[in-house]
Amino acid sequence: xxxxxxxxxxxxxxxxxxxxxxxxxxxxxxxxxxxxxxxxxxxxxxxxxxxxxxxxxxxxxxxxxxxxxxxxxxxxxxxxxxxxxxxxxxxxxxxxxxxxxxxxxxxxxxxxxxxxxxxxxxxxxxxxxxxxxxxxxxxxxxxxxxxxxx
Length: 150
Hints:
Layout (H helix, E strand, L loop, with lengths): L1 E6 L2 E2 L2 E2 L3 E13 L10 H15 L2 E5 L6 E5 L2 E5 L5 E5 L3 E4 L6 H18 L5 E11 L2 E8 L2
Parallel strand pairs: 1-5, 5-9
Antiparallel strand pairs: 1-4, 2-3, 4-10, 6-7, 7-8, 10-11
């Protein structure tokens, strides 16, 4: 799946410049074969990844649990102050506040993985043992996370 989103990550007590990526997300599932001789219908997996990706598409991904950013939601805007003193005021509808401490590909992998496991659990995919999720920020820039059944 692919989605486009903006963010700024924090490193070494500083905030990088606001920028965006054309992200790609892929998932690999491990588990027992069901009676149809597959682990999980690829169409079903793609739909779930597409639904999760849509939440982020063309939005600013706010790392709502950042220890470095000062974040305030007020009057329909997210106001974000960086350690450098820059202040961003972003319309609420353009922001997705993620329960993560940094908007790195690694944390996005973790967030996607938790969301995917939750969606699969609601659909009773009890035969699954593990999911490996990859988030690509661009060519040669990716993170991967393997999560076993919660």
